């Protein structure tokens, strides 16, 4: 777009509001009014205004939930819940914030904000101006044209005609036609059943517009599509009215009143002080602006203002984020190294060309030794590709220190035991630096000692929010770091980080180190007051090195066996498809949910079918399992086919793709701060979701093999969550059963069904086992009935008998729910806080899910902590015993080792001893040990 035209910026206020509300923790100003959304909105708007200039600007808001569209279609947006009660009082304050910045607010009764945006865009561009709409809302893409663009507020990415075409498959002027056909479940726009975005785009490309398509509907060859278009033609026309923005809506304020102007410092300062936003006052340079007499603030305000800041608000005199230094010569690097050693603490971050730490090439390193004092050391930046001009000189790489020399200068600092290295997601950087990066180097750098801000946050706030650096920065520092996409571009225009201009690379990379250091300074002291210091120091931080070693070691996979499994699965899928077609009475695409739904509910007339909002029958696993339980063979066979298909694509083909040709092993990535319960998760490949008890799962485990001269040893905690249940609820009979190593499910069956121990049959044990595990997950009578294939009344009787026999369990469940309601979190048996989202929600469904999570979290979290305790103690125990076994995998309650054949007995004894002695419970811990040439045999 030309920059010499008048330029109107229209900010979609709703997007900012809800993004701010959900990104920040609860905050209140001195009088108790919630202001987290106000703080986030004010911060984002202030940040935006410093980076974007226009001749005119306005923020556009929705005035009310009901508009003219509800007169066209009563159910339009009717399914949307009311805004959270703590957000409602913030709407007016957000409008005050906008006015305090000197920016116009636009809203109009009976119209949506999108209509006003369309009307102003039309009017302004008609006068020869250009318009930027700050929003990623797909509905606004219909406005894109020569003088109108969108700007994604998160990615800071312009959205023009190519991006619209990529999203909808049509040009902006045809977006409305596509939306009318496809509908929109978010806004409850019905569309035409069975037609999605891709099909809608194809139809509009062929027929031009909706009316012409409907007029020619009888010519459509596909019968279902033809019938839908004919039967739902009027619904499509209504949908078009709903999605078409009213560009002729009245303008609530003249365009002349939207002229951009700087804010009045006094007015803005008063607003920020009234809300208690001290960090924003500092960031905007308004601390010294009196704005108003001191009497406008209550005498006790300074002591209370901290409530309005994010948790652990940054100090008022915090330095700015940048500018930072680019280090391109050895003398400057040595000076930084000495300063870091003198400081005693240095934040560290790496820039690479891949998210795969074991194969990533090091592009640069950033250091921070104090807030605002950071640098970037480029190591492998290359020239940008030329433009193809034969006369142009060959591009030259930017000046930088040779990689080997830079790493030699950094290694003493990074391995210095007297200098603490602070990282965010340290495991990744330690794996990158732990490999030889420079040609001719014998080994990598063993960075130590380290702190990890991601794990510090996770130790205190598991389940409360995410622990990515950007989110923590906004939450705790009130600062939004530079987005990666802003530096490298997106889509076809993205360049590798190694080709980013050094000025931009420095601003981005050094800021990461700066943010990491500031987060460490703010969060580390909280560990003690939050009673999470021991958890972090003794468990989470020690897990970094343990998992790093496990990931680098990997596990061997037999590629030939994997190929055999894949061929077997393919043949079985073909056989199942033939059976499915016979049961259906005709061939169809088994992988198509739409076609399967038509077979089950239109042709076979099976009961229980429900159509989705798009008009197609639902055929998810729950639907098929319900039909299978009723004795229908076709859905049961489809479930088996789906399982084979998923296993084949995820594990057979997925493992083959992840197999490292250098060592014939797969190296999974353990995520340390994802789950809400403290459990690890596994990706690339995911080795934690392989079915345990199915024939297919056993086949896949056979492909994981030991190296020559070794065996695999599997050590699995026995019924650890039930042991924790007996411990927490202090159930005497269950404790007695575990102490005597009795079969816990048989004992439960005898207790609740009043049977003699020798009279417990397989069915009674099965029922007892189902309820034993179901109780931990808060299973209802309805859920138990579905699992056991019995009536809800009988299931309720079993649950009542269970709680009558074990009243301590019910009491413990109620205590956990009450603890979550009062504190917002529950504690594991070892003191880790597990935050429970939605526990006080007015939505019964959401609150019920939260209550079930509150019941289950201490058991899952306790189990996770027990096995982590074993993992951090295991390497030293094996080393002290003179054993060469290597820990390879952790899968829920199981550890897998590769052991030299001659050390199997000794290793088994050490592993069992460590696992069974890491925690003192009211019941004994038991670890079951197995071994074999492959993972399946080890079970």
Automatic annotation (TrEMBL):
EC number: 2.7.7.7
UniProt xrefs under InterPro entries: 3'-5'_exonuclease_dom, 5-3_exonucl_a-hlix_arch_N, 5-3_exonuclease, 5-3_exonuclease_C_sf, DNA-dir_DNA_pol_A_CS, DNA-dir_DNA_pol_A_palm_dom, DNA/RNA_pol_sf, DNA_polI_H3TH
GO molecular function: 3'-5' exonuclease activity; 5'-3' exonuclease activity; DNA binding; DNA-directed DNA polymerase activity
Keyword terms of this UniProt record: DNA damage, DNA repair, DNA replication, DNA-binding, DNA-directed DNA polymerase, Exonuclease, Hydrolase, Nuclease, Nucleotidyltransferase, Transferase
Domain 3'-5' exonuclease stretches: 324-528
PROSITE patterns recorded: DNA_POLYMERASE_A
Keyword Nucleotidyltransferase: yes
Domain of life of the organism encoding this protein: Bacteria
Reaction equations catalysed: DNA(n) + a 2'-deoxyribonucleoside 5'-triphosphate = DNA(n+1) + diphosphate
Oligomeric form and interacting partners: Single-chain monomer with multiple functions.
Biological role stated in the UniProt entry: In addition to polymerase activity, this DNA polymerase exhibits 3'-5' and 5'-3' exonuclease activity.
Full protein name: DNA polymerase I
Species whose genome carries this gene: Teichococcus wenyumeiae
Classification lineage: Bacteria, Pseudomonadati, Pseudomonadota, Alphaproteobacteria, Acetobacterales
């Amino acid at each position: 777009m030309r920059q010499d035209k008048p330029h109107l910026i229209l900010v979609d206020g709703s997007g900012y509001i809800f993004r701010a509300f959900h990104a920040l923790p609860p905050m209140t100003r001195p009088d108790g009014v919630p202001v987290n959304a106000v703080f986030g909105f004010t911060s984002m708007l202030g940040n935006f205004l410093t980076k974007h200039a226009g001749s005119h600007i306005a923020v556009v808001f929705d005035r009310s939930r009901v508009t003219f569209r509800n007169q066209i279609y009563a159910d339009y947006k009717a399914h949307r819940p009311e805004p959270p009660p703590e957000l409602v009082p913030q709407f007016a304050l957000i409008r005050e914030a906008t006015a305090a910045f000197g920016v116009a607010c636009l809203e109009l009764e009976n119209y949506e904000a999108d209509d006003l945006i369309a009307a102003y865009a039309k009017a302004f561009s008609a006068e020869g101006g250009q318009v930027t709409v700050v929003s990623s809302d797909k509905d606004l893409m219909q406005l894109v044209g020569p003088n109108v663009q969108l700007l994604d507020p998160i990615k800071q990415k312009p959205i023009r005609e190519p991006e619209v075409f990529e999203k909808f498959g049509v040009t902006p002027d045809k977006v409305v036609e596509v939306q009318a056909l496809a509908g929109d479940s978010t806004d409850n726009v019905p569309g035409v059943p069975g037609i999605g975005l891709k099909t809608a785009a194809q139809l509009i490309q062929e027929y031009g517009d909706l009316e012409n398509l409907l007029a020619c509907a009888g010519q459509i060859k596909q019968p279902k599509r033809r019938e839908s278009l004919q039967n739902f033609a009027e619904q499509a026309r209504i949908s078009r009215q709903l999605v078409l923005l009213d560009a002729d809506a009245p303008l609530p304020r003249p365009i002349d009143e939207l002229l951009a102007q700087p804010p009045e410092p006094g007015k803005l300062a008063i607003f920020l002080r009234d809300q208690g936003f001290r960090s924003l006052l500092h960031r905007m340079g308004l601390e010294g602006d009196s704005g108003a007499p001191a009497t406008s603030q209550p005498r006790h305000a300074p002591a209370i203002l901290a409530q309005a800041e994010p948790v652990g608000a940054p100090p008022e005199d915090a330095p700015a984020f940048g500018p930072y230094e680019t280090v391109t010569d050895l003398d400057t690097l040595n000076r930084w190294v000495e300063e870091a050693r003198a400081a005693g603490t240095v934040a560290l971050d790496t820039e690479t060309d891949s998210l795969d730490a074991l194969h990533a090439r090091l592009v640069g390193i950033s250091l921070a030794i104090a807030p605002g004092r950071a640098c970037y050391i480029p190591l492998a930046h290359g020239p940008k590709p030329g433009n193809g001009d034969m006369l142009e000189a060959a591009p030259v790489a930017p000046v930088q220190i040779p990689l080997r020399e830079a790493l030699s200068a950094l290694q003493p600092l990074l391995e210095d035991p007297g200098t603490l290295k602070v990282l965010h997601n340290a495991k990744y950087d330690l794996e990158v630096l732990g490999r030889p990066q420079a040609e001719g180097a014998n080994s990598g750098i063993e960075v130590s000692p380290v702190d990890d801000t991601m794990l510090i946050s996770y130790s205190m706030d598991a389940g409360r929010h995410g622990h990515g650096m950007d989110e923590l920065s906004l939450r705790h520092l009130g600062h939004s770091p530079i987005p990666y996409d802003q530096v490298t571009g997106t889509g076809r225009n993205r360049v590798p980080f190694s080709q980013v201009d050094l000025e931009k690379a420095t601003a981005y990379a050094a800021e990461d180190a700066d943010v990491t250091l500031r987060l460490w300074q703010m969060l580390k002291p909280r560990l003690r007051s939050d009673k999470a210091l021991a958890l972090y120091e003794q468990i989470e931080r020690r897990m970094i090195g343990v998992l790093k070693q496990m990931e680098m070691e990997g596990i061997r996979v037999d590629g030939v066996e994997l190929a055999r499994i894949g061929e077997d699965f393919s043949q079985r899928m073909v056989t199942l498809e033939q059976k499915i077609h016979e049961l259906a009475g005709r061939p169809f695409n088994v992988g198509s949910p739409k076609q399967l739904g038509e077979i089950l509910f239109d042709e076979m007339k099976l009961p229980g079918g429900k159509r989705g909002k798009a008009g197609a029958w639902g055929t998810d696993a729950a639907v098929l399992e319900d039909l299978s339980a009723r004795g229908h063979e076709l859905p049961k066979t489809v479930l088996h086919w789906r399982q084979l298909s998923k296993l084949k694509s995820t594990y057979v083909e997925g493992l083959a793709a992840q197999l490292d040709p250098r060592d014939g092993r797969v190296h999974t990535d353990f995520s340390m701060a994802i789950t809400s319960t403290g459990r690890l998760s596994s990706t690339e490949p995911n080795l934690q979701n392989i079915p345990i008890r199915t024939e297919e799962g056993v086949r896949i485990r056979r492909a994981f093999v030991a190296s020559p001269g070794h065996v695999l040893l599997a050590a699995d905690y026995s019924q650890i969550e039930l042991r924790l249940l007996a411990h927490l609820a202090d159930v005497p009979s269950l404790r007695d059963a575990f102490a005597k190593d009795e079969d816990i499910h048989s004992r439960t069956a005898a207790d609740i069904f009043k049977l003699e121990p020798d009279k417990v049959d397989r069915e009674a044990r099965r029922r007892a086992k189902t309820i034993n595990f179901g109780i931990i997950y808060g299973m209802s009578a309805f859920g138990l009935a579905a699992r056991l294939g019995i009536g809800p009344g009988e299931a309720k009787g079993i649950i009542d008998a269970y709680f009558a026999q074990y009243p301590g369990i019910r009491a413990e469940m109620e205590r956990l729910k009450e603890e979550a309601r009062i504190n917002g979190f529950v504690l594991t048996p070892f003191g880790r806080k597990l935050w429970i989202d939605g526990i006080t929600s007015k939505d019964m469904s959401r609150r019920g899910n939260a209550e079930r999570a509150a019941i289950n979290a201490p058991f899952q979290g306790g189990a996770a902590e027990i096995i982590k305790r074993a993992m951090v103690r295991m390497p030293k125990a094996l080393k002290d015993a003179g054993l060469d076994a290597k820990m390879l995998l952790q899968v829920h309650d199981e550890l897998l080792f590769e052991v030299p054949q001659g050390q199997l007995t000794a290793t088994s004894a050490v592993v069992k001893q460590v696992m069974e002695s890491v925690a003192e419970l009211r019941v004994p811990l038991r670890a079951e040990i197995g071994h074999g040439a492959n993972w399946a045999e080890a079970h």
